[in-house]
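Reviewer 2 asked us to include a model.

Predict the structure of this chain.
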Amino acid sequence: MTVNHRMKPAAVNPIKTGPSLGAVLALQGCYRAMPVIHGSQGCSAFSKALLTRHFREPIAVQTSALQEMDVIFDANRNLEEALNLVLNKHRPDIIGIIGTELTDVAGVDYRAMLKTYKRERNMRGSLAFSVTLPDFRGSLESGFSSAVEAMMDEMIQMAGHKGVRHVNNRQITLLPAAFLTPGDVMELKEIIASFGFEVIAVPDISTSLSGHLLTGFSPLTRGGVRLDSMLQSLQSGLTIAVGASMERPARRLHNALGTPYKVFQGAMGLKAADELLHFLHQISGEPVPLRYCWQRENLLDCMLDAHFQFAGMSAIAALEPDHLFSVSGWLEELGVEQQALVTSCETPVVAGMEQEVWVGDLDDAEYFGKGVDLWISSSHGITAARRLQAAFLPAGFPVWNELGAHMATSVGYRGAMEWTNKAGNLLMRREAEHRESSVRNR
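Predicted model (structure tokens):
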């Protein structure tokens, strides 16, 4: 189907979140990392505020704090001062310099500056990379993917002088997309490991943003994949990317190291989970663990139980492209009419979907959603859902009106079952409220 755009002069209640925030999110899944946003102070404050509100965890981020005169005369001087402060005070293992639209439009060559800086500071024991992510191109999803790809490039260069690559065919590198929660990443790691593989997720937010009670304060990221494990992932015999946006980092590993890769555009719902488990069964030669056979039976029974709640219902989803693709497939399996699908930017995965997709904002979703029964979007869509009197299912980023949303699971049979029950319960409550309202108004 075609991807459409509504012509209007301004975005109203946008879905889109800046790609620089996606890069900051990617670095939160790496141990002792520090994202440095090369731009104004507002860029880092925005990312930190939204991520803290969503995950309810401290978020590590630094900024070069550019102002107008800094951009005109020497923006890299601010970046050098920020790097000196971070290295001397915190000594991170990983530094990611995230260029914004301010440095991109000004044409600041901070990549060459970083190359010289690393040579002068002899930063061989740490990983430092840069990525350019202006807000007028892409979204959170593409920024996350670009940051992971830049990390891969730097890892390959770091390991290049260490000799011959020894392939470990029982080790798999997992590249999870930005829409996957810490709970999703943990579930995927468990599924892959149950077939006898060692799994290294890059990045791994399941051990950093899943909620923990570590004592003391650290300005760097706590939890996540360690640098030595990241370098060890270069020895993996296979890369599994979950989410179409992660194909570029997977292909980068393939082109540089010859590592074969498999891309799953989604892992939510019956069909997607079947494909994932069948693939793991084929490459491992191991039978599917009994618990997943039972989970599949539970999901089928759950879908049958919820049939009367979803029959004749319509839904609208306003999410990032990869997430929209996964949710759309789940809705199709439930037999729910997809009244409208709205996303933040056009990508190959949404261009190839059978349903009609609109690139726009939550105002467009409200325009197309008149009479809809179920609304699926971030917490920014809750007021629009109330105006339409639709059941509101929070998903995507950010979700700040529900505790534990960042640990919710949508992948695999268990994740699809959780979503099906949750959406069914919301529709049941909505029906009961409408029934009570009609009785009161008689």
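Residues 412-440 form the longest helix (29 residues). DSSP finds 18 helices and 14 strands in the chain. We have added this to the supplementary material.
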